[in-house]
Amino acid sequence: GAGVSQSPRYKVAKRGQDVALRCDPISGHVSLFWYQQALGQGPEFLTYFQNEAQLDKSGLPSDRFFAERPEGSVSTLKIQRTQQEDSAVYLCASSRGQSYNEQFFGPGTRLTVL
Amino acid sequence: GQNIDQPTEMTATEGAIVQINCTYQTSGFNGLFWYQQHAGEAPTFLSYNVLDGLEEKGRFSSFLSRSKGYSYLLLKELQMKDSASYLCAVRDRGNSGYALNFGKGTSLLVTP
After folding, report:
1. Contact state of B48 with A102 under an 8 Å Cβ cutoff
2. Other beta carbons less than 10 A from residue A66's beta carbon
3. According to the model, what pLDDT value does residue B1 have?
């Protein structure tokens, strides 16, 4: 596709459920980022991949959050035992590589935990 | 980490000029970015500064002073469609060196 796509666009989960959020980056983009954006706030960094390697996961808020990119393209962010404070928009971004500055963002997945 | 401060809200008139300021504190500055985000949509890239000075791109310009930890985004000839949130983001050499640290955003309302 022409841009970064994410699915689902909206997800409602009951507290305690596990969720999986998918990101399809722009074809050929080496770098992939996940951000969490709470209402009225700027995005906050969660984790970064270069190809299939997860080089930085310092922003993941707890061990309930797990991300993978096994073949260096599609990435999945998994949240186990969801809690209400996990409610946010989860944004995925990709870029061509380390020497490229522009990150292209997907439309996000809005997660609501009841 | 960084402390990134920008005004929460601004209002300006169609056709006018508006300047959105951003101040930051970082130990390993590696670039400053401005993004535009319309409600419910993805952030879109506007500008990138890594050296001091002004970068101009059409109606949008961005300025950086590294010694002052200061940047601004200048929007000229405002249009109604410019109503959006404007996000200032700093990249730091710490951690992976590639993630962006965003401010909370400035919500700009353009009025007729």
Report:
1. yes
2. 16
3. 44
